[in-house]
Write a structure and sequence with these properties.
It is built from no helices and nine strands. It is elongated. It has strands spanning 2-5, 9-11, 16-18, 77-88, 91-93, 108-118, 121-123, 140-145, 157-159. By secondary structure, it is an all-beta fold. The strands form two sheets. Strands 1, 2, 4, 6 and 8 form a five-stranded parallel sheet that branches.
């Protein structure tokens, strides 16, 4: 998703800008496999380590698929540029697919705006497991404000958690 707004952007409570599960799928590029998927965090699996990849300053890479047999896609890519204020009560997300085993990693969210306000969430979480093995690692998030000098007007969350006991991503 690439979104450019010349004024202000409002994401209401319950509203979402989402690239969840829109990342790499089975048989595509990325660092997936049959032991979960890596991206912003490092997954030290005993069978097959998944290192981190992509930029922490300009995140634009897709999350990896978590398995070689399923549809456990990684998170996609969200790039949002807003000239004014982002009033975030909802969610901007690029999460990995939740699954039973071997989940996809979080994708990338790169937000540039004049100011970020509100109590919503920016997410690039790894897919959470519902059964047994290997959740996806967290993705990457970068938020840049061009006019605000701090984040005190934003009381929400900026998160790139691993989907369980895996490595968190970067933000």
């Amino acid at each position: 998703i690439d979104l450019t707004v010349g004024g202000d952007l409002y994401v209401e409570k319950g509203g979402t800008i989402s690239a969840t599960s829109k990342g790499f799928s089975i048989g595509k590029a990325g660092l997936g496999g049959c032991s979960g998927a890596g991206h912003g965090g490092w997954w030290p699996s005993t069978s097959d380590a998944r290192p981190s990849y992509g930029s922490i300053f300009r995140p634009a890479t897709l999350g990896s698929c978590g398995s070689t047999t399923g549809s456990d896609n990684g998170g996609g890519r969200v790039r949002v540029v807003v000239a004014g204020t982002v009033n975030l009560a909802g969610t901007i997300e690029a999460n990995g697919m939740e699954c039973g085993n071997y989940c996809g990693s979080g994708g990338s969210v790169w937000l540039t705006c004049g100011a970020l306000v509100g109590a919503g969430e920016v997410q690039a979480n790894g897919g959470w497991i519902s059964a047994y093995y290997d959740p996806g690692c967290g993705g990457r998030v970068a938020v840049y404000q061009t006019t605000a000098t701090d984040f005190s007007a934003f009381t929400g969350k900026i998160i790139a958690n691993g989907g369980g006991h895996t490595g968190s991503g970067n933000f």
